[in-house]
Amino acid sequence: MAVFIKYTRWFAVLLCTVAYLKPNLAQAQYTSNGAGLPRIVNYHDGAYQLPDGTWQMGQLYLETSGQLRVRPLESKATTVYQPGQVSAFVLKSDTFGTVRNVNMSYRRIPAAFALQLYRYGQYTAFKLDHRYIGEGDHTFGSNTVVPAGAMDLVLQPIIGDAVRVPTARGAFTRTMLTLIGDCPELAAQITKGKLGRQHMRQIVQTYARWQQANLQPATK
Predict the structure, then answer these.
(1) 167 near 152, Cβ under 8 Å?
(2) Which of 48, 84, 102, 117 could lock onto 109 through a cystine, CB 3.0 to 4.6 A?
(3) How many CA atoms lie within 13 A of 119 on its CB side?
(4) pTM over 0.85
């Protein structure tokens, strides 16, 4: 009798676990991990913008390779987009865009999807997550290792290449003076160390206001 009660309880727990997991598994799809072994891809409802400006609804999944996997709502067929083939996409509550030609010192990244943080004037700030550009812990040089989960702050101008915002003070000052040094107020504060990387939103916002007041064209 005790054995029967024990297995009855075990079966009840199993049923509850399956009931809890069922809604999540409904969004999943099994694919190959490249070694012939199956893995689960968990899609989430979202939207993506094609280069012609139109937006489409679908179920989206951002691969660690940096590709966007899209499954239309009315179909089970899957389309894989490279950065640039999709102008932007919304996944959960986050908006992603494409940064172009980012110089990471160890290599140049032609294009990558990145999380959009804010936009003022000609510059859009992104958070570039190295987990989604196919790097992980790979070594690209004899002494260069990209840590898992490494992230970079990147500024993408309307025209031209994206710029990685350095963390070192000297490199930050040189980079910022190249980008926004034509604004006397910002140039002075950055040179004196009154504005640093932690003030990037304020810097970009101030520069956008200064450009608008001085009718500076977006040519960088």
Answers:
(1) no
(2) 102
(3) 10
(4) no
Query: How far apart (Å, rounded) are the C-alpha atoms in residues 183 and 207?
Result: 7
Residue 141's DSSP bridge partners are none
CA distances from 129 to 116, 149, 192, 199 (A): 11, 7, 31, 20
Number of continuous H segments (helices) and E segments (strands) in the chain: 4, 12
Task: For 116, list phi and psi in degrees, rounded to 5.
Answer: -80, 130
CB neighbour class for 78 (10 Å; exposed up to 12, middle 13-18, buried from 19): middle
Cα separation, 63 vs 29, whole angstroms? 13
Select from 116, 126, 121 the least CA-distant residue to 205: 121
Question: Over the stretch 41-72, which tens digit does the pLDDT of each residue have?
Answer: 789 999 999 989 999 999 999 998 899 999 98
Which residue is associated with the tokens 């031209």? 160
Written as one letter, the residue type at 197 is: R
- What backbone torsions phi and psi does residue 113 show, to the nearest 5 degrees? -75, 140
Q: What are the pLDDT digits (tens) for 122-181?
A: 999 999 998 888 654 443 443 345 555 689 999 999 999 999 999 999 999 999 999 999
